[in-house]
Amino acid sequence: MVTNQQSRKRGLDPSYPRLLGDRLCLDFANTIEGPRSARPEDFLLDYADLPRWGHHAGVLSEAAATQLLQSAEASPKAAGAAFRRGLALRSVITRVFHAIATGATPRPPDLVLLQSEYRNAMRHAQLLQSADQYRWDWPDEETALERPLWPIARSAIDVLTQDNLARVKECPGADDCGWLFYDTSKNGSRRWCSMEGCGSRLKMRRQYARKKGAAVQ
């Protein structure tokens, strides 16, 4: 079970960051690695990264991602507009959930923008039956350049309206992370986006500081 969870959190493409947010919208916000660090790294550089990341996160099939890349090549101006819209969506998700994670109130204009993106996404969605369940999807929109953004906008509204917002947290790392995550632990005590990453680094720094302090004494 642990191995399967760890594999899922790696995503499908090792060139993109791990999926440690436990919610799609937070994973999308985390496409900037180390936002608090001196050298943050942005993994969304042009439109092509939107469908590729969507496939990495499991919300687009490889065929759908390929189709979108072809559509982007045929319509570069529209692809550029969709990419800018994606960056704006990432920014508003980051601001809204950073505010929630730090005990602040999200700004009304940010909530309005998020609501607008959600409404646009659901305007294209269809309710589909899968076995004995129903789900929202966008089966007839494989050439729509904004298609990668729609499940992300829906995820953000789902978190806001259905989840326990006290479990939305921001990883401190060693004062250099800043990734957002949804705490799925039983007792809500998770502190880091990754125990083996940020958690281990912080513990190593504390151990080093204690040893150095003991040596000075």
What tags apply to this protein structure?
mainly alpha; disordered N terminus; two-stranded antiparallel ribbon; Jann2411-like fold; 8 helices; two-stranded antiparallel sheet; disordered C terminus; 53% helix; globular; 217 residues
How is this structure best described in words?
The protein is mainly alpha-helical and 217 residues long. The protein has a single domain (2-216), classed as Orthogonal Bundle (Jann2411-like fold). It is 53% helix and 9% strand. It contains eight helices and six strands; from the N terminus they run ααββααααββαββα. It has helices at 2-10, 24-29, 49-56, 62-74, 76-101, 108-124, 150-162, 195-216; strands at residues 32-33, 41-42, 126-130, 133-137, 168-170, 180-182. The strands form three sheets. The chain has a two-stranded antiparallel sheet. Strand 3 and strand 4 (133-137) form a beta hairpin.
